[in-house]
Each structure stands twice: as structure tokens, then as C-alpha cells.
Design brief:
Helices cover 21% and strands 30% of the residues. The chain has 367 residues and is of the alpha+beta class. It has two domains: 37-150, 3-layer Sandwich (Rieske Iron-sulfur Protein), CATH 2.102.10.10; 157-312 and 335-356, Alpha-D-Glucose-1,6-Bisphosphate, Chain A, domain 4 (2-Layer Sandwich). The strands form four sheets. A seven-stranded antiparallel β-sheet has the order 12-18-17-16-15-14-13. A four-stranded antiparallel β-sheet has the order 2-3-4-9, with no helix packed on it. β15 (242-248) and β16 form a beta hairpin. It is globular and about 80 Å long.
Length: 367
């Protein structure tokens, strides 16, 4: 038998420049850095603490100074390249743990903890990044700082103000490309995966449309029919037989009858790893078997319990699926494309277009 009788295993998936079809291009595309990205929970960075965040192969040191403000620096000391996230916060500055070079929030070295050998103090700097805190999250602008003022962090008025809706949060780091996650959270034909929890079923796509940098889509499907959610969802307050979604690049959101909403914020760490932040929020829950509703203060402990018993296990099913999809793609990236949902094609077209636009704007062509 000839040695080449069996097909050789393909090499690693192609780069964006090498890709031969849309699936390969979208699975190699990054996300445009000229947007605000959620990178950490605000509560996760205490005063005097420094943590590492990552955006598309870039390492960033987040730290909170004594004034309570969060700052972000390129995560390397300009001297010997140690990560600044290994260092110490000194007031509103960050000091490298090796030679004690101290950086201010703009990335300038303002102090050297050793002799300079008779030389004048050099002007040394690493990159700093715009940072904001909103919705309980730390947001980073990894692109052109001049564009930070032109971009908005998504508004979520329902969870702000004096009477915010009750919310449940979840975050995961999945070994999957960010586009696989957007496909997953917007493609409701995978109800079979969630047959145990039944958050939706019998979904029928009723509309899908690309408008600028947004993909709008709708499904007719019964939302919230699980053992727990089915008892609590107040179906008199809104239509729960339909869901409207939007891939609002680079974010994703949904609205069910004006009473159940969510946002999904993806943070692309690298080509095979994504951190994802979910915020689900609810207008009201009914007290089971009664015509009455829970007051919002009482909904919070219910959501905490529901998040542990239902929301998080449900999302873990999605995580296992997209991680398996990533592994399958790496083995079979040369296989023919079979994608039936027309909305998914729109997500992928938009992702490819936005990445190409960024590369062209940055003068990188098809890198």
C-alpha cells in the first residue's frame, strides 16, 4: 500500500492572509481594537492591587491606585521586560519588582530605585491605555487612544438609576475563537444542547438583516420554560414567545418582550481563547401560583440562586460546545463548510469586514 494512500492530516489553521474561504477568515480574524472592551470586574481590582488582562495577544497590567482610579499599562518593564503585573502599586504608581523602576499612569518612568552610574535620568515610557468603569466592569480601549472619545460603552439604562432591574452576571474563559461564541449565543437552532434546562425551544428564524455594523435577527420561540424560570417569568408583562437579538459589533444583546434582556461582551485573548462576560437582567418575577410579583429587592437573592442552579450550568454547556467546535476546527479546517442558518453568515461577514477594515486602516493589509 502506498504511503500516501491515506490523506495527510492538515497543518494548523491558516492565518487571515492565508485563508481561502469565509470560515477560515472569520476563525482567524481579530476584533477591531478601536472599541471599548470589558476586561475585568471592577470588584476584582482592589486599591493597591495589580492584575493582568489580555487582548489579542497583548498583555496589559491593570492596577488601582490609592485614589481609587484604575489605570492600564503595557505589561512590561522597559528595562528587562518583566511583567509589571508582578510588581507593586505605590500610591498611584506601579513599580517593577526587579530593579524598582516606577511608572506613572501615563507609562512614564518617574523613579529609579538604583544608581544611574552618573548618567542623567533617562526618559523611558511604556504604552498606557484609556480605562473606564461602568456596569460593574472595567473597560479598556486597546486601539488608537484618539478614538476613545468617539466610541461609546454600551448603555444599559435598566440596570442604572434608582430602581435598577435585578441582574445576574457570569463570566468564563473558553478555549474558542470569539466568532464561535457570537455564533453560539445568537443561533437558537441549538436548543437540543440545552434539552435539560430548556431556556428556549422550537426556534424559528423570522428575520435577519445587516444594517451598517449591526446584525438584527428575531426568532419565534418560547423563552424561559425551564423548571425554575418557567415558574418565575411573568408572561403577562411581555411577549415571551419571541426574542430579538443584535450582534452590535463587537457586542451582542437580546430582548424578550421588554422584560428579559441580556448583553454579552467578548474579550478576544488570542486566536483560540476568549473571555466572555454575560449580564442578564429582568424586569419582574411573579410569585409562583399567585398573581403577585416579587419586589426587586427580593429578586436579587432569587437570581443568585438561579444563576448557580440554572444560568451558569446552562452556559457551561455552551462553553463545552464551543471548545469542542474549536478543537474540531483545528483538526478539520480544510473540510467543506456546512452552515444552514443565514444569520450566522451575516455575523461572519461582518466580523471579516471589520477586521479587514482595521488592517487597512492600520496599514497592515492582510496580515
Amino acid at each position: 500500500m502506498r504511503a500516501d494512500h491515506f490523506a495527510r492530516e492538515p497543518g494548523p489553521p491558516p492565518s487571515f492572509a492565508e485563508a481561502r474561504n469565509k470560515r477560515q477568515r472569520v476563525r482567524a480574524a481579530g476584533l477591531d481594537p478601536d472599541y471599548w472592551y470589558a476586561v475585568e470586574y471592577d470588584r476584582a481590582v482592589a486599591p493597591g492591587q495589580v492584575v493582568e488582562a489580555r487582548f489579542w495577544n497583548r498583555s496589559i497590567a491593570l492596577y488601582r491606585g490609592s485614589d481609587g482610579q484604575v489605570r492600564a499599562l503595557e505589561n512590561r518593564c522597559a528595562h528587562r521586560q518583566l511583567k509589571l503585573s508582578r510588581g507593586e502599586v505605590d500610591g498611584c504608581h506601579l513599580t517593577c519588582t526587579y530593579h524598582g523602576w516606577t511608572y506613572d499612569g501615563e507609562g512614564n518612568v518617574v523613579h529609579y530605585a538604583h544608581d544611574l552610574f552618573g548618567r542623567a535620568q533617562p526618559e523611558v515610557r511604556v504604552r498606557s491605555y484609556p480605562v473606564r468603569v461602568r456596569h460593574g466592569l472595567i473597560w479598556l480601549f486597546p486601539g488608537d487612544p484618539a478614538m476613545a472619545a468617539e466610541r461609546d460603552i454600551p448603555d444599559i439604562p435598566e440596570i442604572e438609576g434608582p430602581r435598577p432591574w435585578a441582574r445576574v452576571e457570569a463570566d468564563f474563559t473558553w478555549r474558542a475563537h470569539h466568532s464561535m461564541i457570537i455564533d453560539n449565543v445568537s443561533d437558537f437552532t441549538h436548543a437540543y444542547l440545552h434539552r435539560k434546562y430548556r431556556p428556549f425551544w422550537d426556534a424559528r428564524l423570522t428575520g435577519h438583516e445587516l444594517r451598517g455594523d449591526r446584525v438584527f435577527l428575531s426568532y419565534d420561540t418560547l423563552i424561559g420554560g425551564g423548571r425554575i424560570s418557567g415558574l418565575l417569568v411573568d408572561r403577562r408583562r411581555g411577549d415571551t414567545t419571541r426574542i430579538d437579538l443584535c450582534f452590535d459589533y463587537p457586542y451582542q444583546r437580546s430582548d424578550t418582550g421588554g422584560i428579559i434582556k441580556h448583553w454579552c461582551f467578548v474579550l478576544p485573548i488570542d486566536r483560540t481563547t476568549t473571555r466572555v462576560f454575560f449580564i442578564f437582567y429582568f424586569d419582574a418575577f411573579r410569585i409562583p401560583f399567585t398573581p403577585f410579583r416579587f419586589p426587586r429587592w427580593a429578586m436579587r437573592p432569587l437570581l443568585k440562586l438561579g444563576g448557580a442552579l440554572s444560568v451558569r450550568p446552562l452556559l457551561l454547556e455552551d462553553g463545552a460546545a464551543v471548545e469542542a467546535e474549536q478543537a474540531g476546527y483545528e483538526r478539520n479546517h480544510a473540510s467543506p463548510i456546512v452552515e444552514l442558518n443565514p444569520a450566522v453568515h451575516l455575523f461572519q461577514d461582518l466580523t471579516v469586514r471589520k477586521w479587514q477594515d482595521y488592517l487597512d486602516r492600520a496599514g497592515r493589509g492582510r496580515a
